[in-house]
Amino acid sequence: MMAALSPPTLSSLPDSLLLQILVWLPPRDRVGVARVCKRWHRLVRDNFLWRHVDLSSCRISSKILWHLLRHYFQGNLRTLKLQGSLHSFRKQEILTSALLQALGKQCPKLHQLSLMELDLRSFQYGCMPSSLTTLELRSCEIPFVWFQVPETPCTFPRIQQLSIWNVPAFSNQHLLNIATQGTLKTLILSEVYRVTDVGIEAVAPHLKDLQHLALYHCSVGDSAMHFTRRHMKQLHHLDLRSNSLTDVGLLCLSGLPNLESLCLRNCSQLSPETILIVCQSLPSLNHLDLSGIDFEDKIFQKIQLGLPSCTVANTIPCADSSAIS
């Protein structure tokens, strides 16, 4: 009777339930439990566990990544996050051109790649897996000539979602190189001071299908909004937080037909009157973020009353005003 009342052990659980538990383990621990027994060794190799891999919290070498690729990633991997040691005193090579090319060949379902703190200056853009549709670069170094697609575009990624966070070398030319490919649906640029109004003017005609645009802490101003309104009529989400936007630039956005969400967080040079006029001209707008703008409560109430079909957010700024949620 005591045996019948004893709680179940991990070994008594079915494979399907064990897999749901193992998937929450960090990849390093996941590989480690393969030594427990033959059953766990078999389970750890299950395709389900290696579709979405986040190694951003692990300090690994290229040798370890090669091992993971050969024994676990092949044919399974969909998304991958990697963090290097670009800003560390002890630098360690994690990604090589050969490894990146092998990922492309052996993981044909890999569609999302996130790279953090990696030095990519020796990499050719042609090394990128051609299956990629989403690319995120955070605090990376890239070559001054990149994102170019030469004569054989079928062997290069067709990026639909591009996120660039604090990549010092990213410039107007980089943006033009990828915009002219005509595949972008989402573009997020944060702390890329080399992208200017001139760059937005050049790429805007190539971004007619763009649906999500975010420009955080960038060197763009009012004139960029003119070209945004003129060419990007499919925009659903526009995030302009912490930019030097004035009423002149905001007025350029009037009448965007499909815009559902507008973030003006920390845009302190805007007047409430202009905000209300512009937002009332946006027929699809349902969310407006005015957090961090120093308006009185009665001003926020007036804006909210003037936009009855729109939610207006005005949360108190956090202690670290540079953080981007």
Automatic annotation (TrEMBL):
UniProt key word NADP: no
Nucleotidyltransferase recorded as keyword: no
Annotated ranges, domain F-box: 7-53
Biological process annotations from GO: SCF-dependent proteasomal ubiquitin-dependent protein catabolic process
Record SMART domains: FBOX (SM00256), LRR_CC (SM00367)
InterPro entries in UniProt: F-box-like_dom_sf, F-box_dom, Leu-rich_rpt, Leu-rich_rpt_Cys-con_subtyp, LRR_dom_sf
SUPFAM superfamilies linked to this entry: F-box domain, RNI-like
Signal peptide location: none
Keywords: Leucine-rich repeat, Ubl conjugation pathway
Transmembrane residue ranges: none
A GO cellular component annotation in the UniProt record: SCF ubiquitin ligase complex
UniProt name for this protein: F-box/LRR-repeat protein 12 isoform X1
Origin organism lineage: Eukaryota, Metazoa, Chordata, Craniata, Vertebrata
Name of the encoding gene: FBXL12
